[in-house]
Write a structure and sequence with these properties.
Shape: globular
Order of helices and strands: HHHHHHHHEHHHEEEHHHHHEEHH
Radius of gyration: 22 Å
Largest sheet: 2 strands, antiparallel
Helix content: 25-40%
Strand content: under 5%
Strand order of the largest sheet: 1-4
Number of strands: 6
């Protein structure tokens, strides 16, 4: 059975405040005077509040800004869909690389900056901790620091990939609650600094920050493997070749530890409690269909609307239920799979004509991994906003393919006695397929087939330099005519609301990204 809060031990005393403040306010979780001594209970409350935004991005600040959709809409796997081109028109413009600053997804900006403020408050509370006098207590405190720094780096890395040149802050801010803008490369350095500090804290924590947390009360919490996986995504996206050997060694450590393994592909995505936090899951959100999230309460509850969003309208099916029809899968994505690859039917639902109501850009193909299932419909509250499907943020298949790419294709030194070929073979064997030689092209193809619907394809195309070729298209049949401009479309425009709010503030005035 799922934990109904991230830390069961502090549920009774947990007090969370609204996230609706200005995005850079210092008091999003302000429960005590800044700089005041912090007990372990207070630190846990701050830390729990820093985790909470992981549960909120499907309806971020009352916007449908789910991070997976924001990523995949710009890929070659899905269309925008929905009722028509004007239904959530910002999503259509996003998919065509034509989104103006006035439509840029401000919900995720607000949510993740609030999350960063919460992580900052946690770190500051840890800096002022009292009562951690024994070696065991000091190890726990170091573990809390590693968690908080991971969360700050995780939230920041999304803002970095989406918007590039952004503000960042680590201390409580005074009125007007603004911070100077940094370049994308400077933000990369900030993310790496937090990851490095988290690794130092993890070493001090020892068993209090283990490589694997699956099973028991710790299973919804960050672990060392998740920290390594975040580093891999950031370093590989930045193409920081000087760090490839370090990241490959981290992947080898995860592989050789033996705590993780590939599981039955279909079981990863059922949303059922017994399949959450599987042996393949390195880190995932802990969604609960508690019925509390409603149209007017985006900042409460633990459910998600992603399943309703991506499921076909008016569906008649014994297992899956209807939704809003966004994000239909492209035929080319279905066609890329080899015969016998279990990941095709494991990733994509193919519904016959007449079993659902076709909507804009219909293909008859829909995302399956996080699809709405009848068995998971919330018995209380607004059903479409309260599905319990956990979001798997990192899983072991990515570890294997990271190692295969870094060592087999990017020149990183082998580590831990592991070969790139055995990593590739393991992923393909789970899919029901035979071995193919490791090459950059074969790794690219394998990642594409493995991670459909998981928000990774667009970022892979960017870092490989393939986006302009792959994403430029003249698909008139599905009203998807677009040209990818690498100098502009790597980043979204900074939301116009933030441009206007900072205008005329001198050092805090935001500069818009190129081309917007």
């Amino acid at each position: 059975m799922k934990l109904h809060k991230i830390f069961a031990a502090v549920v009774a005393g947990l007090v969370l405040t609204s996230c609706g403040d200005q995005f850079l306010t210092s008091h999003a979780t302000h429960q005590g005077e800044a700089g005041a001594e912090a007990t372990e209970g207070a630190i846990l409350s701050y830390l729990t509040a820093a985790y909470q935004p992981l549960l909120m991005d499907s309806y971020a600040d009352y916007n449908y800004n789910h991070i997976l959709l924001l990523s995949d809409l710009r890929s070659d796997d899905i269309y925008k869909g929905g009722g028509d081109a004007g239904d959530q028109s910002w999503m259509y413009h996003l998919s065509l690389f034509q989104i103006p600053a006035s439509e840029s997804p401000a919900g995720i900006w607000s949510l993740y900056y609030t999350a960063i403020a919460r992580a900052n408050n946690t770190v500051l509370a840890i800096d002022n901790a009292v009562g951690f006098d024994t070696d065991a207590a000091k190890a726990r405190l170091a573990g809390y620091r590693a968690e908080a720094l991971f969360l700050r780096a995780y939230y920041l890395h999304h803002l970095w990939k989406l918007y590039g040149n952004i503000p960042f802050f680590t201390e409580p801010l005074d009125d007007p609650f603004m911070a100077p803008q940094k370049s994308a490369d400077e933000i990369y350095g900030c993310i790496l600094a937090d990851i490095a500090d988290a690794e130092t804290a993890a070493a001090q924590a020892g068993a209090e920050f283990p490589l694997c947390t699956n099973g028991g009360a710790r299973q919804a919490r960050v672990n060392l493997a998740a920290l390594y996986m975040l580093k891999a995504r950031v370093v590989m996206y930045q193409q920081d070749q000087a760090r490839y050997g370090e990241v490959a060694a981290n992947m080898a450590e995860i592989i050789n530890d033996g705590s993780y393994r590939l599981v039955d592909f279909d079981s990863l995505w059922t949303g059922a409690d017994e399949n959450d936090f599987s042996a393949e899951s390195i880190f995932e959100t802990n969604q609960i269909s508690d019925g509390k999230r409603d149209w007017g309460s985006a900042w409460t509850g633990c459910g998600t609307n992603l399943p309703a969003y991506i499921s076909p309208n008016e569906l008649s099916d014994p297992v899956f239920c209807g939704g809003w029809g966004f994000g239909p899968v492209r035929q080319s994505t279905w066609d890329m799979y080899e015969d016998g690859d279990v990941r095709r039917e494991g990733s994509i639902n193919k519904f016959a004509a007449g079993t659902y109501g076709p909507r804009f850009q219909d293909t008859g193909l829909f995302q399956k991994k996080y699809a709405a299932r009848t068995a998971l419909r919330s018995p209380i509250g607004t059903v479409d906003l309260n599905y319990p499907n956990n979001l798997i943020i990192f899983r072991y298949a990515e570890t294997l393919l990271n190692y295969a790419e870094l060592v087999g294709c990017q020149g990183a030194a082998a580590a831990g006695g592991i070969t790139p070929q055995e990593c590739m073979d393991a992923v393909r064997a789970r899919a029901g397929l035979g071995s193919v030689p490791v090459s950059l092209e074969s790794v690219k193809a394998e990642r594409h087939k493995e991670f459909v619907g998981e928000g990774m394809r667009f970022w892979d195309l960017i870092r490989w330099g393939d986006a302009a070729t792959v994403l430029t298209e003249n698909d008139e049949a599905h009203q998807s005519v677009r040209t990818f401009n690498p100098d502009k479309d790597k980043y979204l425009p900074i939301p116009q609301s933030e441009m206007s709010r900072t205008a005329g503030t001198g050092e805090y005035e935001l500069r818009q990204n190129n081309g917007y």
